[in-house]
Write a structure and sequence with these properties.
Rossmann fold, 5-stranded parallel sheet, alpha/beta, single chain
Length: 164
């Protein structure tokens, strides 16, 4: 069984993330979506809320793609998380050249830590490439329309969270 790990904060999960999940399912039999705890980023949603959103948004995708998809919270090194879930490939989404420079460094470090785990870069469809969770949250906070960037259920979750 080919197992892949797609890590991120997913605060919140966007249409760009979902596009990468769809593409990753074409490469692996089981996709583990690693939901990073990452307290340093100060997430809007709790870990439990982010895991629930990932599970809700990816449930139908799993059935459509014939790929097992699970959400897995983690706080350890990415390479250790990959080992924990049995992944031999780490899936990373790229939006721009700036992403590549950071990701290039990460690949080098991860290869030094474990050269049996490869990293694959995927780009979302052109209309999803500019989507960033940070910007989606900012638009939502300022009362803008985020319906082009997230699913209706995530849009509702954002609205509810920001009303509090």
């Amino acid at each position: 069984m080919r197992i892949g790990l797609y890590p991120g904060t997913f605060d919140p999960i966007t249409l760009g993330h979902i596009d990468i999940v769809k593409r990753a399912c074409q490469l692996v039999d089981r996709l583990v979506i690693g939901v990073a705890i990452n307290r340093d980023k100060g997430p809007l949603f709790t870990l439990e809320e982010r895991v629930a959103m990932v599970e809700a948004e990816c449930g139908a995708l799993a059935r459509e793609a014939g790929c097992e998809i699970t959400a897995h919270p983690f706080e350890n090194l990415l390479i250790d998380c990959a080992r924990d879930v049995g992944a031999k490939v780490i899936i990373r989404g790229l939006r721009a050249v700036a992403d590549f420079e950071y990701e290039f460094q990460m690949v080098g470090m991860n290869r030094k830590l474990d050269d049996t785990i490869d990293t694959v870069f995927l780009m979302a469809e052109a209309d999803h490439q500019s989507i960033a969770s940070k910007l989606v949250k900012e638009i939502a906070r300022l009362g803008g329309d985020v319906s082009h960037f997230v699913t209706p259920s995530v849009e509702r979750a954002l609205a509810e969270k920001l009303r509090r």
